[in-house]
Amino acid sequence: MRKLTGAMLATLLTTSAVMADPVDDTLTINGETDIVVRTAAPEHLDGALKEVMSGWLFREDDTRIMQTDDFDNPGMIFVELAEDNWNMAEGSNGKSCADCHGASSDMSEVRPTYPKWNASAGEVRTLEMQINNCRTNQMGAEEWGYTSGDMVNMTALLASVSRGKPMNVAIDGPAQSVWEQGKEMYYTRYGQLDLSCSNCHEDNYGNMIRADHLSQGQTNGFPVYRLKNTKLNAAHDRFKGCIRDTRAETFAPGSAEFVALELYVASRGNGLGVEGPAIRN
Amino acid sequence: MADNVKPRVKVPKSAAVGDTIVLKTLISHQMESGQRKDGDGNAIPRSIINRFTCEFNGAMVVDVKMEPAISTNPYFEFEAMVPEAGEFKFTWYDDDGSVYEELQSIAIA
Fold it and tell me: What angle do CA A45, A49, A50 make, to 5 degrees?
């Protein structure tokens, strides 16, 4: 009896370990675009992580498969809406995105490098900030809300044309102080539950937090289409959700704090392929 | 006319005679059920796709009657046997009288 119990326990342990680990799988979209979902961690993570992994590896089979075909990826509907916006002239200058930038497919080098230092403005800009800058200064149009539908769709379009390119945000030079601020936030415990980003996404990725499978919290798949709310979600909305879950007052999407955090978190994923719009639970 | 209506279909480019192939279709449509009320308490009129058909060289493959409980952006995936080269015709019928059509031809490999 004792032996039997031991064997059963061993089976249970093995089973749960297999369920909790990230899967060993490779991601190819539409049978042609290979995405790096697992690679050696960037140098600055020395001592913290050996390997960085996309959140894709932590999701269930159905969700992962859905992302391998654009027809099955509900996020692509929003990408198509953004493509219409890309070509539509707006604002007092009567210009569209395409008038300056050409086809959206020519923008494949953009998404992997954001958030990025902007020398003339003297600040680190996220893709959303840059889009709004274009809208107000180049087009004479109204700003979009930071996490509004039009905005998140546009970031999804820019991500979709960069799929497969490795994330490559710069953390040195003038961006370094902002990056340090983001790093400080990442390791700071927030809220009544007293949790930092690192407690879940560095110390416990691969484990279950109640019914949810913790990933490394990488941003290479953003904006992500979440099955739970059936829409595209911006990275800052996700940060907000995480901090809220620690029972803290959160920062606002688009705030200087979240810009710094986004730069730091993006840098943790340097080397992972851009996946957006990814599908998550 | 409903806003942002856009049909999409996915059909393999070629198949062998007698092959069973998978067809995927999706139309972006708000599928307003007619059961909801706006902020002032007025009923929002029903506006849905009420019928979807797929034909192959004039022969009906599927003919679906659709009801208000079907959610936004209706997606259909089904199989069809390909007896010869030809053309699939997909048609969606909107409550407002609009008809959306997509054509996809398939070759014999």
Answer: 105
For A98-153, how does the pLDDT look when each residue is reduced to its tens digit (9 = 90+)?
Answer: 999 999 999 999 999 999 999 999 999 999 999 999 999 999 999 999 999 999 99
Tokens of A213: 């499978």
End-to-end Cα separation, chain A, in angstroms? 41
Shortest alpha-carbon distance between residue A28 and chain B (Å): 18
- What span, in angstroms and rounded, lies between the C-alpha atoms of B92 and B49? 7
Token pair in block for residue B76: 């259909």
**How far from chain centre, in Å, is Cα B103?**
12
Residues listed for chain B: 109
Q: What is the pTM of this model?
A: 0.86
Rounded to an integer, what is the distance from CA A236 to the centroid of its chain? 9
Determine whether the interchain pair A72/B24 forms a contact, defined as Cβ–Cβ distance below 8 Å: yes
Spatial separation of the C-alpha atoms in residues A215 and A123, rounded to whole Å: 30
Picking from B3, B5, B8 by the largest number of A CB atoms within 10 A of its own CB, the best residue to mutate is B8
Between B8, B28, B73, which is nearest A71 by CB? B8
